[in-house]
Amino acid sequence: MNKLFCRTLTAAAAVLLNCTILSGFFQAQMTVEVSTISLKYDHAAGGSWIPADAVRWEEGLPFLYTVEEGFGLTAGLWAGKTSTAVMAQEEDRLLVPSLDDKKCILYASRPFVQGERVKESSSLETAADQLLLWLPPEAEVSLEGETASGAGGTYWLLEESQVSQPFFQQRELAKRVPEEVRSQGKLVSLKELRAFLDALPWLALGAVLAAGSLVMALLLALCLGTAKRRKTVLFLGAGWVVFLAALLWLVSWVDLPSSLLPVENLLDLGHYRDLLSWAKEGLQAFSGSASCGSLLGYMERQQLLGGCLLGAGVLLAVGSSVFAVRARKGLPGRGEIAS
Prior knowledge:
339 residues
């Protein structure tokens, strides 16, 4: 068999395996957990009553997010978007035209858009947690907790005994912040922030494993068909399998807190940079608190560890490239490859 074809096939298989493993991980992490409500037709009112928080507004027009079921290649549950009309208002609920057999999304674990994959929350429990809240200066709220100025507004550190589990950011904001400034507010669960920091070094290791498996596969492809380099081929093949197995093991259990993830793109590095910068400023504002001071130190250590792992990955890539150049010089010329 043509050596060039074998090398191309090996490289393509490596890319395909990596993409399959990583795409499964990305899909699982980006699935939005949601709480839903079914519309029930009120014959007397001529429509369906729905909590006001379930109605979203875009350019002054109301709409609902619904749960849509996909089939075939798009099997699963997805966020749909349906325009609606507000026919009446009664305290914290609105009357809208009925949508037969539709489930509307009330709250979600993070902001989302139409077309994202969703998962219905089977149960909604509560647990004690600390919340870090930021509001613009014009917001008028009455909350029990410590306050500090920062980021052009006010930070709040709230001790709460009943916080939704999983953490539904929109639900917790709705309980504490007036609707007119809710979209400008930021709210983070310190429990979820710690969970995210726990995962940082593992994410860095995952990036190293993904890059390392590709490098091993490319070097293996480069050395295929060379009788003098059979030991090198066996070594690279074993290395490729070990890197892939480690990557598969890692993505099988790492679980990122949904409330801290970006919309649509898991690899939005700018989102994580802004999130950690914002959280760090907030924690520094309450550094006198034992919990915030401890979490701030933990954040710095985890970022340093993640950076060291990524640096080790860069060194691995450079070393592998040098090895590849030397290996290439020892291969047969073009005229011999076509045999």
